[in-house]
Amino acid sequence: MQHRKRLRAACLSLAVACAIAAAASPCTVYADEASDLANQLQQAEQNKQQAEQELAQAKENAQKEQAVSQELKNDEAALRSQINSIVSQISQTEQQIAEKQNEIAAKQSEIDQKMLEIDQKQAEIDQRWANFKERLAAMQVMHSGGTIALLGTATDISSFLTYSDNLQEISKYDRQVLDEMAAEKAQLEELKAQLEIQKTELETAKTALESQKLNMESQKSQLDVTKAALSQQIQQQDAKVDAAVADEQAAKAEYEAAYAIWKQAQEEFDRLANSNPGASVVGDGTVMWPLPGYTRLSSYFGEDRELWPGIWSNGHGGVDIPAPAGTPIHVFKSGTVYSSYYSASYGNVVMVDHGNGLVSIYAHMTARMASVGSVVNVGDIIGTVGSTGQSTGNHLHFETRLNGTRVNPLNYISPS
To answer: What is the mean pLDDT of residues 241-248?
Structure first.
C-alpha cells in the first residue's frame, strides 16, 4: 500500500515538473528543470527497483506455494492409489472367504452323507447282530432238548452230520458278514474323520482370511482419515497459492506502473539532455566546467586522502567537486560515450572518448543519462550528482585520462 502511494506521488510530481517546464522559458528554467527531473528520475528509478524486487519476491513466494501444493497433491494421489489397492485386496479376500465358505459347506455335506452311511451301516450291523443272537438262542434251546429231539428224527448218520455242519456254516457266515460290515463302518468313520480334518483346515483358513480382511479394513480406515486431513490441507494450501498468485499479480501491476513512471521520467530527462543547453556552456564553447556554479574542490588530483578513519587512498586520480544530489552533470567536451555502468568503487559512472587518446570520467552519480555509443556535445547532461560506490558524500569525481594514464583534469578546464 505504501509503495503504491509512493508511485502515485511520483507520477504527480513528474506531471507537475513537466507542466512547469512546458510553461516557462527554457533559458530561465533549464537548470532548475534538469535538477527537478533528475530528482524525479532518481526517485522513479528507486521505486522501479523496489517494485522489481517485490515482484521477484512475490514470484518466488508463488512458486514456493505452488511447489508445496503440488507436493501435497502428489501425496494425495499416492495415498488414493494405496487406498484403491487395499480396497481391491479386501474385495479379493472377501471372494476368497466366500469360496472357503462354499468349500466348508460342501465338506459339511460330505460329512453329513458319511454320517448317514455310517448310521445306516450301524443299523444293518445291529439288525444282523440281533438276528444272529436270536439264532444262537434258538440253537441253545435245541441243545437243551429240542436239538436232541430234532436230531432224533434223522433217518441216517449222513442226515445227522449234514444238519450239524449246516449249523456251523450258518454261524461262520454270520460272523463273516458282521466282520465285513464292521470293516465298512470303520472305513466310513475314517473317511468321516478325514473330512472333519479338511473341514477344520478350511475353517482355519477362513478365519485367517477374515482376520486379514479386518486388518486391511483397519488400514483403509486409517488411510481414509489421513486422506481427509490431507484433502483439508490441500484446500488450505490452494488458498495460499491463490493469495500468492494474487500478490504476484498485484506486484506485477505495481512494477508496470513504476516502470511507466520511470520510462516517462527517463524520456523527459533525455529530452532535456539532448536539447541545446545554450547559455549554460561556460568557457570558449569547446570545453566547459562539468558543474557550473560549483567550483570548490574537496580533493585535488594526486593527493593522498583519508577515505574513512584509518583508511587512506594514495594519489587521487581526479578532482572531487561537491554539489547537492541531483545536480546536473555536463560533459566537459564533445565526444562519444563508450562506457556507462555501475562499479563497486565508482558507483554510477560514464566514460566519454574525446579523441586523440583523451577520455573523461564522471563517477559516483545518482543517475546515468548517457547510453553507450551516443554522441554528446559539450554541455550535454550525462548524469546527476550522487554518492554511489565508495563515496563519503554527494560529489562528482571528475577524472581525465590520456592514452590510459590519469592526468590532472585542471590541465584541460578550470573551475568557473
So the answer is: 93
